[in-house]
Design a protein that fits this description.
The protein has 8 helices and 41 strands. With 714 residues, the protein is mainly beta. Helix 4 crosses helix 7 (538-548). The strands form 12 sheets. The protein has a 5-stranded mixed β-sheet with strand order 1-35-36-37-38, with no helix packed on it. The protein has a 4-stranded antiparallel β-sheet with strand order 2-41-40-39, with no helix packed on it. Strands 3-4-5-6 form a 4-stranded antiparallel β-sheet, with no helix packed on it.
Length: 714
């Protein structure tokens, strides 16, 4: 009788289970820019696997229709409940049927002239699903949009948006501020950082939380501490908090929902490269912060670079992982860096998972500069990028090229890490764009293996006396404009306006492309990777335009003579960098032995680098007998339960699939333009999709305006 009763009970339970709604697997949708709040870019879908990935084909293509020359799309779209949300090159927000690519709606922001770089967007809904919202920024404006119909939610903030230049405890109405990363959403809080200027005029990059319903500010964490706050003592100038900017989060965050902790990586303090006006270690710049997500209260931090002189911002969101250490499971947070290291900490205590040593580094001989005497170097995990660029690493594509590069190399200081900026100039390696970059890393939670795409390219930099400090009394309008150019523009475009090849365009002959009104719009709103320079007061902007467009003196008259400048923070440094320069050979290829771009796998339990394979190639070099060179990479990987690592981001305009166990190339697909972004991978009714934004537009590449979905035809 008992056996019959037992079998009957089991039968009832099985029947009941069959009527229960299926449990949603968070790793089958793609609800945040990094897949989930833990930021690991993992998909548990396994329809696409090693046995069939070679059969992938294009399932649909969404043409945004608004690409122009030099536009790009660095956005990773999100997918919730069968709807895909993304951003066009002109920063319009859209919604698609995620299975078919058919457009549902499109939202155009109020500031239709805004340009810039949006890497991610955010989604929130209330408990019963009656209120669903998308949050994203164009320039300084953070919008709330109805996810169902694409209409502005006018009850949020100032009629549908909040201005990120406000509610910083001091407002900066004319400052360069942009919300390029996806805000992190915890309960009813919208936690956000922002992109700011990297010059001496930068505003502080404080972290804030806003109410998702009203837009009201709920808390603020001062990344440049105010008097009485922890970290204030790390600034020798006790008034630094009044005038130093930066220490901002532009790369995104990770969220431990269960513990209510948000992990925030920050960038360098301003200005970059010369720190005489910001002596000290400069907390909380270049730090990983653990904050109480409810209140913004400090929990712990670790500073990855002290007194940064190399633009070593923390470039990507952290990954929340679970690792096996000393026979026990530890909830950890892992942070990749531009210089090719992985720093790992206990999520709760901030204690390093592996020892981190403070290593002596070279002193500065630049007048007024005091480089920090040591820098933290983790013993493990092993670095995922080469750390030193020596003569032996110079490209050997031909004896002529090797000789040319040796001559160039001999001009600069090199061969070690953390070489301070100097009048002689020095090699930065890995270069300013990584090592690790904003595309982020992926982690398989089943194996604790991290996958990182990285660029291994040296750059060089040199310091010069700041031309902007020249006295301007008695000078013509155009001569004043030249000094303003030296203050704001010379770092990227060079002292002779010629730029740096593919990365930073030449401004020579700008008057043949733009009139005064068009140039004003670009300066105010930014364009692609160029930030807004709205903070330039009219007394400087009009002379700058006169100089750039080679106008007759005083032809570019002020349009807002009464405009008030931002609060005085702009103490021009004595010395400035003379521009960003990749170390290229005469043919425009990297001057280091390949590979120049790689995909890497690191075991987070042991800290060991498992494998490294080239990522991308140049057809021209392939024909010359140099295949698998790798290319510069802008975009990160995604790893799946099906055994695949998907990654694009290369200059050869392809997306690839690798065997996650050994790095073997399994498939590659051609894109209509380079996929300088990180893919989104999701499943709908058992069918798996891989979607990449094909925006191109960097490094001299053609621009594109498409999102492309790959999958199996069944």
């Amino acid at each position: 009788m008992k056996r019959i009763l037992y079998l009957f009970t089991v039968l009832i339970l099985l029947i009941a289970a069959s009527w229960m709604p299926p449990v949603k697997d968070i790793y089958l949708s793609w609800p945040t820019f990094a897949g989930t709040n833990d930021g690991i870019r993992y998909s548990s879908g396994d329809q696409i696997n090693k046995s069939n990935v070679s059969k992938l084909k294009v399932l649909w293509t969404y043409e945004t229709g608004d690409k122009t020359n030099k536009t790009t799309i660095p956005t990773t779209p999100i997918m919730i409940d069968g709807v895909l949300y993304g951003v066009t090159p002109r920063l319009n927000l859209f919604a698609l049927d995620a299975a078919t690519g058919v457009e549902k709606w499109i939202f155009k922001p109020l500031d239709s002239t805004a340009r810039g770089s949006i890497r991610g967007i955010s989604y929130w809904q209330n408990k019963n699903g009656s209120d669903k919202r998308i949050f994203y920024s164009t320039g300084p404006f953070l919008y709330a949009v109805n996810a169902a119909n694409g209409k502005s939610i006018t009850s949020f903030g100032k009629g549908g948006f909040i201005d990120l230049r406000e509610n910083l405890d001091v407002d900066f109405p004319n400052s360069s501020v942009a919300g390029n990363a996806a805000p992190t959403i915890y309960k009813n809080l919208l936690i956000t950082g922002m992109r700011v200027s990297e010059g001496s005029d930068a505003v502080p990059g404080h972290i804030r939380a806003f109410d998702v319903i009203t837009g009201e500010r709920k808390w603020i964490f001062h990344t440049i501490p105010h008097p009485g706050e922890p970290g204030y003592e790390t600034w020798e100038d006790k008034d630094a908090w009044k005038r130093v900017g930066g220490a901002n989060n532009w790369a995104g965050m990770a969220l431990d929902v269960k513990r209510g902790i948000v992990y925030v990586p920050t960038g360098s303090a301003s200005p970059d490269f010369y720190g005489a006006n910001r002596k000290g270690s400069n907390l909380y710049a270049n730090s990983l912060l653990a904050l109480d997500a409810n209140t913004g209260k400090y929990i712990w931090h670790f500073q990855v670079v002290h007194h940064d002189l190399w633009d070593r911002d923390l470039p990507a969101n952290p990954n929340l992982v679970r690792v096996r250490k000393d026979g026990k499971w530890v909830d950890a947070v892992a942070q990749i860096t531009k210089h090719g290291y992985i720093f790992m900490f206990d999520r709760v205590t901030g204690k390093p998972i592996f020892p981190i040593n403070e290593v002596p580094v070279p002193a500065s001989d630049l007048p007024g500069e005091e480089a920090w005497p040591t820098q933290p170097i983790p013993t493990l995990p092993e670095p995922f990028a080469r750390q030193k660029f020596t003569v032996d690493e110079i490209s050997k594509r031909s004896p002529e090229i090797n000789a040319q590069l040796r001559t160039e190399f001999s001009k600069y200081r090199g061969g070690q890490e953390f070489i301070p900026p100097s009048f002689q100039g020095g090699i930065i390696f890995p270069g300013f764009d990584g090592g690790g970059e904003w595309g982020g890393s992926a982690v398989d939670p089943q194996t604790q293996i991290m996958y990182i795409s990285t660029t291994e390219l040296p750059w060089w930099t040199q310091m010069v006396p700041n031309p902007a400090l020249n006295k301007i009394s008695g000078k013509t309008f155009k001569e004043v404009g030249k000094s303003v150019y030296a203050k704001y523009c010379v770092t990227c475009h060079g002292p002779e306006l010629k730029g740096d090849g593919k990365a930073f365009p030449s401004l020579v002959g700008l008057n043949k492309k733009y009139n005064e009104q068009q140039l004003r719009q670009i300066l105010d709103n930014g364009r692609n990777m160029m930030p807004s320079f709205r903070q330039i007061i009219e007394g400087e902007k009009a002379p700058l335009i006169t100089y750039l467009l080679d106008l007759e003196d005083k032809e570019a008259m002020p349009v807002r003579p009464g405009a008030a400048p931002s609060p005085e923070r702009d103490i021009a440094p004595l010395y400035t960098m003379n521009g960003y320069h990749r170390f290229y050979d005469k043919d425009g290829f990297p001057g280091i032995t390949p590979p120049w771009g790689t995909l890497n796998a690191v075991n987070l339990n042991t800290g060991k680098l498992l494998w490294k394979v080239p990522l991308g190639e140049f057809e021209e070099l392939k024909k010359q007998g140099f295949p698998n060179s790798g290319t510069e990479i802008y975009g990160g990987p995604v790893v799946t339960k099906g055994g695949i690592v998907f990654v694009a981001g290369t200059q050869d305009e392809k997306i690839r699939a690798f065997d996650k166990a050994n790095g073997k190339l399994l498939w590659e697909g051609q894109l209509p333009a380079a996929g300088f972004a990180t893919p989104a991978v999701y499943s709908i009714n058992g069918k798996q999709y891989v979607v990449i934004a094909a925006g191109g537009g960097k490094l001299g590449m053609r621009s594109g305006g498409n999102y492309v979905a790959f999958g199996l035809d069944r």
